[in-house]
Amino acid sequence: MNASSRASTSSGCATPVIPSCWLPVTNAEGADELVVLDIAAARDRRPTFLETIRRAAAELTIPLTAGGGIRTLEDGRAVVRAGADKVTVNTAAVERPELISELSREFGAQAVVLAIDAKRAGNHWDVMVRGGRESASLDAIEWARMAVARGAGEILLTSVDRDGTQSGFDVALTAAVSRAVTVPVIASGGANRPSILPKSSKKARRMPRWQPQYSTMKCNPFER
Fold first, then answer.
1. What is the maximal distance between C-alpha atoms in the chain?
2. What's the distance, CA 195 to chain centroid?
3. Residue 161 Cα distances to 22, 68, 84, 169, 202, angstroms
4. Which of left, alpha, beta for 108 (phi over 0: left; psi -120 to 50: alpha)?
5. Across residues 10-35, what is the average pLDDT?
6. Domain span holding position 58
7. Residue 7 pLDDT exceeds 80
8. Residue 209 lies in a domain
9. pTM of the model
10. Are strands 185-188 and 212-219 parallel, antiparallel or unpaired?
11. Contact, 204 vs 211, CB < 8 A?
């Protein structure tokens, strides 16, 4: 299971932080990876929160994936130097897909995670950018295929419709993307307790070629 923290701040506010008391829990309670995202970085056009990444990496004994505000190869290098094992990109990759290829050549596909925020739009899912606030007018499944072809080694798939609702994962969305790509897919959005994971898997097994390698449980990084 992945533990996922989607931090958001308003312009001019302090850098997002992860509660120090939460990191040992992440290490001890069975999470095999921590994903830390500053989801407002693209919206506010500010850099990735490197100090937060450094502090998290210093305390964790599990792999750390970090992103938010990564717009260039040099931004990716800075995140890795700060201690992240993988980098994740979203808005900047939609705007300039070549970024995925550049990161993949530098760090290897296994270290490049494409974050897709997807929202139901009729009979398909739209890619949402800038923290899930704007539509990119791009089909989520086609974008996943394109990104993997460019070198993304993993997909972090968040259902905008389910995110924050605590109503369970969007199994149909995750199954559709999993069928379309050959890389691991992290299901995100809608979970609120570990017991929901077996239920989601049971539903998903009735769908063809369901292959979610991971799922996420989220925390609020501003809770003290």
1. 47
2. 21
3. 27, 20, 29, 10, 21
4. left
5. 56
6. 2-219
7. no
8. yes
9. 0.78
10. parallel
11. no
Cβ atoms of 182 and 209 within 8 Å: the answer is no
Q: List the structure tokens of 222.
A: 């501003």
State the Cα–Cα distance between residues 220 and 181, nearest whole angstrom. Answer: 30
Estimate to the nearest angstrom the gap between the alpha carbon of 41 and the chain centroid: 14
Cα 116 to Cα 33: distance, rounded to the nearest angstrom: 18
Of 222, 217, 224, 199, the C-alpha closest to 31 is: 217
Q: What is the CATH number of the domain that holds 191?
A: 3.20.20.70
Asked whether residue 224 is domain-assigned, the answer is no
Mean pLDDT of the 201-218 span: 46
Long-range pairs, 168-172, Cβ under 8 A, ≥24: 168/196, 168/199, 168/200, 169/196, 169/200, 169/215, 170/120, 171/200, 171/203, 171/204, 171/207, 171/210, 172/207
Higher pLDDT, 40 or 175: 175
- Both structure tokens of 215: 């799922």
State the pLDDT confidence band at 6, using cuts at 50, 70 and 90. low
Higher-scoring residue by pLDDT: 20, 162: 162
pLDDT of 35 higher than 70: yes
With contact defined as beta carbons under 8 Å apart, do 151 and 99 qualify?
no
Could you tell me the two tokens for 188? 């995100």
Q: How many domains does the chain have?
A: 1
